[in-house]
Amino acid sequence: MNNLRGSIPSTFSDLTNLSTLNLSLNSFTGEIPMGIFNLPKLSNLNFQGNKISGAIPVSVSSLQSLIELNLANNSLTGTIPKMPTSLSTVLNLSHNHLSGSIPSNIGVLKDLEILDLSYNNLSGPVPSSLEGLQSLTQLVLSYNHLSGSLPAFRSSVTVDSSGNPDLTDDRENSNDAPTSGKTRTHTVVIIVAIVSSLVGLCLLAAIIMLALSKRIYRVEDEGPSTEVGVCQVIDGHFITMSSVHTSGIDFTYAMKAVSNPNNIFLKTRFCTYYKAMMPNGSIYSVKKLDWSDKIFQVGSQEKFGHELEVLGKLSNSSVMVPLAYVLTEDNAYLLYEYVYKGTVFDLLHDGRSHVLDWTSRYSIALGVAQGLTFLHGRTQPVLLLDLSTRTIHLKSTNEPQIGDIELYKIIDPSKSSGSLSTIAGTVGYIPPEYAYTMRLTMAGNVYSFGVILLELLTGKPSVSDGMELAKWALSLSARPEQREQVLDTRVSRTSLGVHSQMLSVLNIALSCVTFSPDARPKMRNVLRLLANAK
């Protein structure tokens, strides 16, 4: 994001330890130097948004460490060469002048998540080998000259093939093809499925009846005072020393509250929150952690308690700090003051007719920045596994609180067998480097905070129509005259002062979501810049 001009220096090829080369959003011209494709450790190559011409060198296939390749928005010509099998996050060749057909060997990129070939001059059919892209989440083929039918991609893959008049999408109709043999096969499968389901339901009903009968007997043996469905407290501990809370919190009442699903007021990726009324009439939030899930690495109760004791000593108005915790056989529960007025996500995106004013948005940004700066500034920095507008609670419209601060201590990403977003937080907030480092870092938290800033500036969610907000904002902000399109005009046009401050905050947000982790500012600098934004 500078105004660098001229050709790309060939001397980059001398940097044999280079892992990331990001020259995006400049004005480089000429062809890509051949030597760059001889760098053995290059994992991320981003030349997006320049004026680079010529063909993509066939030697790109020799980059066996390459994870992401982004050559979008240039003037590249020729055909698409064979790509390295190591590509796993993004292959973006959109908005160029590439011609020829889509090579079938792209189908061997089994770990590739996003493939964007839109706005080129590609022709011919979409190869069926693309069905082999097992990790694909987004495929963009729009505005080419493709023909034939789209392959039968999984339902979880978002496909955009608009702007190809001769390309048809028969996926939804494929099951209705009038082939009698296929119909008979489907009928048999359906009959078998129905019979199997009925048998399974009968077995399930028998098991439930048996389990209920045993539970009834057990409750009767224990005496009439035990309530069915209330978790048995193994251990309950206060973290706070405040007599207001130690006298007000009753662990038994907390467990009664979580046994009733009507008390749920919020669910996040890893937690469920319940509203609990105590005997003295005070109300607390009870957060349930399902620690039977293998990704939770709580270890011994002593270790878990020690981690919470450390977090409980934190004191910052913009951070949710636990007051007490309860352990049961299968779960851990954390208790907090109940000051819940929704989340930042609710405030921005719940469809309400009232548009949130800039003063409130700026206050939220400043509050979250203060809380995050505080957490990062500890002797042992507190990192956030899932920082998003859904995990920032509101005490009022202007008072945010960062939640789920304990997750980074008790979740082990290596033990998850799910997708990246299962253990890396919320899609749209996950820093790009997490795909290959699988490590929580302060720079990664800064990226997530940058996305939150963009949500406050644009009024848009972190992902819409398959496009991540950060990437959309970066692409529009490449040219100063386009930055106006990023801002929420319902707010930016209220006054010149608001407009000026929003542009200043936009610059801060863009620096936070820059691709390179090393190029992102520290949170203490982000807070300073926000406080001084005019």
From TrEMBL:
Gene3D superfamilies found in the cross-reference section: Phosphorylase Kinase, domain 1, Ribonuclease Inhibitor, Transferase(Phosphotransferase) domain 1
Protein's membrane topology: Single-pass type I membrane protein
Residue ranges, annotated region (Disordered): 157-181
UniProt entry keywords in alphabetical sequence: ATP-binding, Cell membrane, Glycoprotein, Leucine-rich repeat, Membrane, Nucleotide-binding, Receptor, Repeat, Signal, Transferase, Transmembrane, Transmembrane helix
A cellular-component GO term for this protein: plasma membrane
Highest rank taxon of the organism: Eukaryota
InterPro entries, sorted: Kinase-like_dom_sf, Leu-rich_rpt, LRR_dom_sf, Plant_RL_S/T_kinase, Prot_kinase_dom
Cellular compartment(s): Cell membrane
Molecular-function annotations in GO: ATP binding; protein serine/threonine kinase activity
GO biological process assignments: detection of stimulus
Domain Protein kinase residue range list: 238-534
Sequence intervals crossing the membrane: 188-212
PROSITE patterns: PROTEIN_KINASE_DOM
Protein name: Protein kinase domain-containing protein
Provenance organism: Aegilops tauschii subsp. strangulata (Goatgrass)
Lineage, top ranks: Eukaryota, Viridiplantae, Streptophyta, Embryophyta, Tracheophyta
